[in-house]
Write a structure and sequence with these properties.
The chain is mainly alpha-helical. About 50% of the residues lie in helices and about 10% in strands. It is built from twelve helices and five strands. A three-stranded mixed sheet has the order 2-1-3. The chain is elongated.
């Protein structure tokens, strides 16, 4: 097959679209309603090792199978993928509610072993939060944890963002405090993310040194760590605004939670 599909998940060499629009089509059926997507076989297999393994055998010869079903997938998410497949473009998110469909597309890209699409989505999500000076909400982070494994790039980007948010805040929002108490892996990953900043020792307060402030700040008369969870800062307000928007979305399946070890 001249398209040289990737067999190991690496991004294949880019080819002009017209070279991949062969006459052979495959039939993909998606969702509970079996929505039908006739797609160009060469184009699909060029980008997806997952589909290459289905429509071609180990000797790279075409198999007799020309159809495949993905009943567990959401039809809308697969439609986004098809749009990317033929245009190599993804709509830039303009508001928080646009992130949900992008995450679902990211999970699909991982399933289909399309590294280039995964990378593109991570950068779009990263740019959205940076440009808008906001941070991922708790439910976003939980959703990513429920659908990814350790060392996942999207997971690490979101955890790194949360680590920065919490470090620069004067308080820990109550919903974050509860989540960190329950979900040990998330707490560990935040610490790991902070460690990757490689701060110099002089930049970090030393609680052993009696001559410096050791972090027991006063908030409304309270002293100690308990006041941190009860406090309220401008950074916390930014987070809570994100959470309110996510509550309004409601239908993206983001009720998923992370258990104590971070697994789905």
């Amino acid at each position: 097959m001249s398209s040289e599909p990737s067999q190991n998940g690496d991004s294949p060499a880019q080819k002009p679209l017209h070279e991949l629009l062969s006459s052979t089509l495959v039939d993909i059926y998606v969702g509970e309603e079996n929505s039908h997507y006739p797609l160009h076989e060469k184009l699909l297999c060029h980008h997806s090792p997952f589909f290459t393994s289905i429509f071609y055998n180990k000797s790279n010869k075409a198999s007799r199978t020309k159809e495949f079903g993905l009943p567990e997938l959401d039809d809308n998410v697969f439609a986004l993928f098809v749009g990317w497949l033929y245009s190599r473009a993804i709509r830039t998110p303009e508001e928080e509610r646009d992130i949900g469909p992008l995450l679902d597309l990211y999970f699909l890209a991982a399933k289909l072993e399309i590294a280039a699409l995964e990378t593109e989505i991570v950068e779009l999500v990263r740019a959205f939060y940076h440009t808008n000076e906001t941070y991922p909400g708790l439910r976003r982070v939980q959703y990513v944890y429920a659908n990814t494994e350790a060392d996942n790039v999207m997971r690490e980007m979101m955890v790194g963002s949360v680590a920065r948010f919490l470090t620069l805040s004067d308080s820990i929002p109550e919903h974050w405090a509860k989540a960190l108490k329950k979900n040990g892996q998330l707490s560990v990953d935040i610490i790991r993310s902070i460690q990757q900043w490689h701060l110099e020792a002089r930049q970090v307060p030393d609680a052993r040194d009696a001559s410096v402030d050791r972090g027991r700040n006063t908030f409304k008369g309270a002293v100690g760590f308990s006041s941190v969870e009860e406090g309220h800062s401008e950074m916390a307000e930014v987070k809570e605004e994100d959470e309110e928007e996510e509550e309004e979305e409601g239908g993206e399946g983001e009720e998923s939670h992370v258990n104590g070890n971070g697994d789905a």
